[in-house]
C-alpha cells in the first residue's frame, strides 16, 4: 500500500497521465517489516504487464491507448480483483554458463508450445520473431515472453515447466535450459525470492550433468536411421536396414560432443535386433519416431523421448534433463578440443569499444586487454596468462563476431 501511495504521489507531482511503472527495491528490517527505496520510473508498461493482465482480466495495452486518447478509466482500484497466479519467463539470446553473455545468430529452429499470442490465456506467447530470423547485437537480447496462468502458484509452476520443455531453439545460445532449472529449484518453487537466488541455488542451476556419451550416440544413430528410412521406397535396393543373408551388419558413426571425438558402432543382427557399441560397452538399442522431430529412444531397456533437430552437420538433442549439440566428425572446419587455438577471442558478438594495451606491451595474468559492447552489456577481456602483446587484429569501433580472434599474446614475456 505504501509503495502504491508513493507511486501515485510521484505521478501527481509531475502531472503524469498515462500508463507507467514505478520501480522500488525492498529489504527486510529486523522487526520483520520491509523498507523500500525508489529506483526509477518507466513511462510505459513494464515487460511483465501480461502477468497483471492474466490475473486481473484487464487488457493494459488497450487501456493505455484509451487513456492516451483522453478516455477516463471505467473502473476504480476497488473494482480490480485478482484471480489465480501467473508467471512470465523471458526467453533471451544469452549464455548463462558464460556469465549470461548475449548471443547472436540465426533462429535455425524456433519451436514454441501451443499458445495464444498477445492475448490472455493459460499459456501465452508474446514474440516478434519467427524461424529463420536473425538475432543481431543491436537490440535487447529478449526473444520472447512466455506467460502461464494457473489457479495456484503450484499449478502455474507445473504449467510453466511443461511449456518450457517444449521450447526448442537452435542456432544460438539461449537461457531456456537455465529457466527450466530455475523453475525446478527449491527457492523459486517455494517463492523464497530475493536478489541472491541465483547465487544461493548455484549448484542446482549450473552444476548439472551433461548428456552422457552413450545417450548422445544413441540420438545420433536414431537420427541417421530415421533419415535412411525416410529415403526408402518400394524398391528393395533403396533400403538401408542392414539386412544380411547371414551374420551381422556393422555401421560406424564418428561425432563430436563438447569438442571431443567419439565413435559408436551399430551392430544389426540377422534377425533385426540392434546393439550399440560405445567405448568398451555394448548396449541394446532401438528407436522410433513419435511425431515430427520427437523420437522414442531406448537404451538398455530405458526409454527417453528426445527431440532431434539436424541442421547441416550439426545435431541438437533436447532431452528431459539436458541438451546436447553433436557435430559430424567428417564435416569441414571441425575443431576438436585438442586443436582449438589458444589465442584471445571475443566471448560475444558486438562492437570492440577499445583496446587497453599496445603491441609490444608486457601484460600480467588478469590484466584488462580490450572492451566489448553489445546488447546493453559491456565486457572486459582479460589476459589468461602473462605474456607480450604480439598483435591487435581489429580497430576500435569494429564489429566482431563471437569467437573472433581479437589479439595475440606470446607464451612468455
The value of Rg in angstroms is: 27 Å
Find the count of extended strands (DSSP E, 2+ residues). Answer: 28
Strand order of the largest sheet: 13-14-15-16-17-18-19-20
The profile of the biggest β sheet is: 8 strands, antiparallel, barrel
- Give the helix proportion (percent range): 10-25%
Gross morphology = globular
Q: State the low-pLDDT regions, or none.
A: 333-342
Q: Figure out the total of helices.
A: 9
The overall pLDDT average reads 90
Tell me the structural class. Answer: alpha+beta
Distance between the termini: 62 Å
Strand content: 35-45%
What does this structure look like?
There is one protein chain. The chain is an alpha+beta fold. 20% of the residues lie in helices and 37% in strands. The strands form eight sheets. Strands 13-14-15-16-17-18-19-20 form an eight-stranded antiparallel β-barrel. Helix 4 (153-164) packs antiparallel against helix 5. It is globular, with a radius of gyration of 27 Å. It starts with a helix and ends with a strand. The model is unreliable at 333-342 (pLDDT under 50).
Quick recap:
With 413 residues, this protein is an alpha+beta fold. It has helices at 2-13, 49-56, 60-68, 153-164, 176-184, 186-189, 197-200, 202-206, 213-230, and strands at residues 21-28, 34-42, 85-92, 94-95, 101-102, 105-106, 109-111, 116-117, 123-127, 134-135, 142-150, 168-170, 249-257, 260-268, 274-278, 281-291, 294-299, 302-311, 314-318, 323-328, 344-345, 350-355, 362-363, 368-374, 377-382, 387-392, 399-400, 405-409. The chain is globular and about 90 Å long.
Amino acid at each position: 500500500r505504501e509503495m502504491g501511495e508513493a507511486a501515485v504521489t510521484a505521478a501527481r507531482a509531475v502531472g503524469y497521465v498515462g500508463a507507467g511503472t514505478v520501480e522500488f527495491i525492498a529489504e527486510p528490517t529486523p522487526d520483520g517489516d520491509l523498507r523500500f527505496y525508489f529506483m526509477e520510473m518507466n513511462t510505459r508498461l513494464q515487460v511483465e504487464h501480461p502477468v497483471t493482465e492474466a490475473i486481473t482480466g484487464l487488457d493494459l495495452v488497450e487501456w493505455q491507448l484509451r487513456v492516451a486518447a483522453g478516455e477516463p478509466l471505467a473502473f476504480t482500484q476497488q473494482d480490480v480483483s485478482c484471480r489465480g497466479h501467473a508467471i512470465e519467463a523471458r526467453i533471451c539470446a544469452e549464455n548463462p554458463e558464460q556469465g549470461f553473455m548475449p548471443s547472436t545468430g540465426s533462429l535455425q529452429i524456433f519451436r514454441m508450445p501451443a499458445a495464444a499470442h498477445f492475448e490472455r490465456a493459460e499459456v501465452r506467447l508474446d514474440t516478434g520473431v519467427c524461424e529463420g530470423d536473425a538475432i543481431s547485437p543491436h537490440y535487447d537480447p529478449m526473444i520472447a515472453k512466455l506467460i502461464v496462468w494457473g489457479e495456484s502458484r503450484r499449478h502455474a509452476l507445473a504449467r510453466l515447466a511443461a511449456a518450457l520443455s517444449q521450447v526448442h531453439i537452435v542456432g544460438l545460445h539461449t537461457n531456456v535450459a537455465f529457466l527450466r532449472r530455475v523453475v525446478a529449484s527449491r527457492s523459486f518453487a517455494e517463492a523464497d525470492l530475493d536478489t541472491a537466488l541465483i547465487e544461493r541455488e548455484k549448484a542446482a542451476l549450473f552444476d548439472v550433468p551433461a548428456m552422457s556419451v552413450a545417450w548422445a550416440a544413441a540420438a545420433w544413430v536414431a537420427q541417421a536411421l530415421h533419415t535412411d528410412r525416410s529415403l526408402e521406397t518400394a524398391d528393395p535396393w533403396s533400403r538401408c536396414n542392414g539386412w544380411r543373408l547371414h551374420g551381422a551388419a556393422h555401421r560406424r558413426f564418428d561425432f563430436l560432443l563438447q569438442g571431443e571425438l567419439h565413435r559408436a558402432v551399430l551392430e544389426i543382427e540377422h534377425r533385426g535386433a540392434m546393439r550399440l557399441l560405445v567405448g568398451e560397452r555394448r548396449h541394446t538399442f532401438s528407436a522410433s519416431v513419435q511425431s515430427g522431430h520427437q523420437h522414442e529412444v531406448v537404451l538398455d531397456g530405458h526409454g527417453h523421448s528426445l527431440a532431434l533437430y539436424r541442421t547441416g552437420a550439426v545435431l541438437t538433442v533436447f532431452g528431459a534433463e539436458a541438451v546436447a549439440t553433436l557435430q559430424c566428425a567428417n564435416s569441414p572446419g571441425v575443431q576438436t578440443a585438442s586443436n582449438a587455438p589458444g589465442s584471445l577471442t571475443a566471448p560475444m558478438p558486438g562492437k570492440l569499444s577499445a583496446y587497453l594495451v599496445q603491441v609490444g606491451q608486457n601484460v600480467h595474468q588478469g590484466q584488462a586487454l580490450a572492451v566489448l559492447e553489445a546488447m546493453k552489456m559491456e565486457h572486459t577481456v582479460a589476459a589468461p596468462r602473462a605474456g607480450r602483446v604480439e598483435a591487435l587484429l581489429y580497430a576500435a569501433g569494429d564489429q566482431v563476431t563471437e569467437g573472433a580472434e581479437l589479439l595475440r599474446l606470446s607464451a612468455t614475456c
